[in-house]
Amino acid sequence: MISVCLADNLPVVHFGVKSYFRDHPEINVVANVAEFPLILEALKNKKIDVLILDLELKGLKNIFDLKFLLNNYPNLEIIIYTGLNEQVYASNILKAGTSFFLNKSCKLETLGNTIVKVANSMQTKSASKGIINYREGKDLHRKLSNREVEVLRFLSNGKKNSEISKILGLNEKTISTYKLRLLKKLNVSNLVDLVNKANNLVLV
Fold it and tell me: What is the DSSP annotation of the chain?
């Protein structure tokens, strides 16, 4: 059996995923957590093969938290399962070492198939509905640095510069600089358009 830990803020997601896989012949959801620090407890106390992780999980601050997990648990496979926009976030998240990036609009059947593929080391990152192919070259998100993606994520969630600076441990002026870079790279002139464009980018 493939042992899975689900890390998500929403109880309805925990209920839905665990119910769907209750009688699955290959997948066993052995842990459900709603905060990033609880992932570490689960990994210490249970054998976990695959972590299903929402990027908006409480306590998950930045991409370095993901790298910490991957560095300290090299046999752990991480599937990002989130409602955030693939075009903006997928490339940097996959470059960090995660296995797949799935949007929550995909069917639970797709999630299940991905878990099995990942557990069997079939990490082709091939494109299908809801799965983002890690491509070189053309996509807009490749223009953004890891830090710019993090700032964009918090701006999209309605965070102010002062709040983002505290979360990331950066000077508020530095956050303003990142915001200006994002406006330029996404070719918009204000924060509303920046957030709207980030949320409405589509795959090509």
Answer: -EEEEEE-S-HHHHHHHHHHTTT-SSEEEEEEESBHHHHHHHHHHS--SEEEE-TT-BT--SHHHHHHHHHH-TT-EEEEEESS-HHHHHHHHHHTT-SEEEETTS-HHHHHHHHHHHHTT------BTTB----SS--GGGGS-HHHHHHHHHHHTT--HHHHHHHHT--HHHHHHHHHHHHHHTT-SSHHHHHHHHHH----
